[in-house]
Amino acid sequence: MTNPPEGPVAPVEAHEPPYYVAVFTTVRTQDQSGYSETNARMEELVKDIPGYLGMDHAQTPGGLGITVGYFRDADALTQWRTDAEHRAAQKRGRAEWYESYTLHVAKVERSHGFTRGQSADAAPEA
User: Fold this and answer.
1) Beta partners for 108?
2) What pLDDT digit, counting tens, does each position of 5-30 carry?
3) What sign results for the dihedral spanned by CA atoms 26, 32, 36, 41?
4) What residues are paired with 23 via a beta bridge?
5) What is the pTM of this model?
6) Where are the alpha helices (DSSP H) in the chain?
7) pLDDT in tens, 56-88
8) What angle do CA 93, 98, 103 make, to 5 degrees?
9) Calculated CA dihedral for residues 41, 3, 59, 85, nearest 10 degrees
10) How far, rounded to the nearest angstrom, does the alpha carbon of residue 79 sit from its chain's CA centroid?
11) Helix (H), strand (E) at residue 68
12) How many CB atoms neighbour CB 75 within 10 A?
């Protein structure tokens, strides 16, 4: 499991659509040797991708993990998917760290957010 975040917790801000999301949902194996270091490296590496917008993570007590990566366009998502270091981490994940996973990629057509303390006019209805 990843370490709890330092500082305040907040979702990735809403961006002007269209943009893309990659939703990676996992169940991990018992042996997580090397996972934390690789995960931290991937979180740093993805920040260098032009068009990367941010990432949200959640982990249930039962072991389901969800990571959502946000990308400005399909080219940015493709660059991340095909990065050599990321590909090596994917291969190791299948061999060692994941019992199962799913990946869903979607184009976002509508997006908005809410933060307590903002005026009601700042957050449009769904």
Assistant:
1) 19
2) 566 788 999 999 999 999 999 999 99
3) negative
4) 68, 104
5) 0.85
6) 35-46, 74-82, 84-92
7) 999 999 889 999 999 999 999 999 999 999 999
8) 85
9) 10
10) 15
11) strand 64-71
12) 13
